[in-house]
Amino acid sequence: MKRKDFLKTSVVGSMATLFGVSALPVHQAGFAKLKKEEPNNSLINNKVGYNHLPNKELKTMNTIIHRSDTRGDANHGWLHSKHTFSFANYHNPERMNFGVLRVLNDDTVSESRGFGTHPHQDMEIVSIPLEGDLKHEDNMGNKTIIREGDIQVMSAGTGVMHSEYNNNPDKPVKFLQIWVIPNKRNVEPRYDQISLKDIAKENEFYQVLSPNKDDQGVWAHQDAWFNIGKFTKGNSDTYQINKKGNGVYAFILEGEVELNGEKLSKRDGMGVWDTDSFTVKATEDARVLLMEVPMQMN
Fold this sequence. Notes:
Layout: H1 3-9, E1 18-25, E2 32-37, H2 41-46, E3 62-66, E4 72-75, E5 79-83, E6 101-109, E7 114-120, E8 124-131, E9 133-138, E10 143-147, E11 150-155, E12 160-166, E13 173-180, E14 190-195, E15 205-210, E16 218-219, E17 225-231, E18 236-240, E19 246-254, E20 257-259, E21 262-264, E22 269-273, E23 277-282, E24 286-294
Parallel strand pairs: 15-16
Antiparallel strand pairs: 1-2, 3-22, 4-5, 5-6, 6-13, 7-12, 8-11, 8-13, 9-10, 9-12, 11-14, 15-17, 17-24, 18-23, 19-22, 19-24, 20-21, 20-23
């Protein structure tokens, strides 16, 4: 695919009418400064994925690779965040998004610290704890603890206020916060959270999020499918794309894998598109998160 053709058909990495959260703490709770960015329709139609160029070594698909050490790094003491895509004070015009996947933050929050109450609008927000417990409260009346092995989704819709704190007094909490631009705006805000322990499988991918309320896992207002796989060394699985026009961003949670021959290590990310399937093989024990999303705005 030619660069100019891809740029014309990709989704802009704009904030798409959302409240962005600054990483600068102003008190112990880490209450963030807030900024609202209005969408620029010309950008949405014409510019996304600046560096999503074809990898000529892989003939069967287009790819983009983001190594772990190339991510944005924001260390504020109580919060250490690694940004795969531009966020808050980290801005890289070549790292705005992957399709409608807008934010992938790898956060570590100190003991009993967190993000004070702040707003979101028109965004699907997914949280996946990797270590420790995360306390969530919102203006919908939800007061919950999200633990390792859980997944949480929140549709911000017309607007929601929430806070997130480390619920552990003696250790950090580590979690992924993921933002997906929705295919419906101004929906009624909602919250969902489930444990993945009953659906987890070994040495194959299992679905944890989809567009369908009745499917396995949580659901979101977008034609997106998330899968997690835990593999022992030497095992592999082939992932089939659910919807034509979607791409997949693979994020290596632990270990080392090969994705169609490309070697990836812990916290590396690799986007693939223009393919029907690809294979992930564990070269060491590994855990992998696959995020399948539309490459164009719905």
